[in-house]
Amino acid sequence: MGYMRGEKIMYDVIIIGKGPAGISASLYTARAGLKTLVIGGYSDLSKGHSIDNYYGFDSGISGEELIIRGEKQVKRFGTDIIGDMVIALEYEDNGFYKVKTKNSVYDAKAVLLATGSNKKKIKINNIQKFEGKGVHYCTTCDGYFYRGKKVALLGYNEYALNELEDMKQFTPYVSILTNGMEPVVDFGEIEIITKKIKSLEGDEYLDKVVYEDGQYDEFDGIFVAYGTASSADFARKLGVIINGNIIGVDEDQKTNIQGLFAAGDCSSSIKQVATAVGQGCVAGMKIIEYVRNLGR
Asked: Is the pTM of this model over 0.85?
């Protein structure tokens, strides 16, 4: 059911994340004839030496083997799988989605977020203290409040570069803080500070960043775009309801945004393979229903 949009394929569904939830969903969408693309990199499940509480494996199975078997199964039904890093998700005026990765851009009628739980933890003193009070995780959501002010982006790769382009719409006074990491992309003429950060300081609101060498810089705000974007990061920028870092979904795994679904650890407090597979099944079936209704 895919068709060409310009020179690009319009996928019926793009699934971000190739863990149990994403692969399970693709099994249903591909078998139903939907043009399905799964985008993902390394899955934490591969760390599992032996999974003994998943139905049907009386001797257990390693996480890596379960992933391999799942991918082989869905490829048999036509699912496309690519190993890439998604850095942006946009909802377009025509009601479709644009998924931007490190290497390409893809279009889809529906999207499933299935990247697992948000494990983004940066060891910087007081970072949690200033969340919402100078520390933010969404340039689209909170960049407006820093118009013309001095801000920093905490990051070092394509994800941070994409957030930088958004931040430039609000202020030209942006610096990149890599927290000791070497930049892997070209940030242009932007100031890049590679020092390791010791702590964030201020009274009620963030005032300055203190480095391990004792020096400091003053910023009005810091936007975190460190490492890889999570499902919660994508959802937050689109205005999806989020409880903590859990994406809000209904019984059909639908978010409050048309055509956007979520399944697995990113939308559940129960972090189990069986739960992820079950939610992926529900999401896959409801995505089939959603895409088919678009053509009526």
From this structure: no
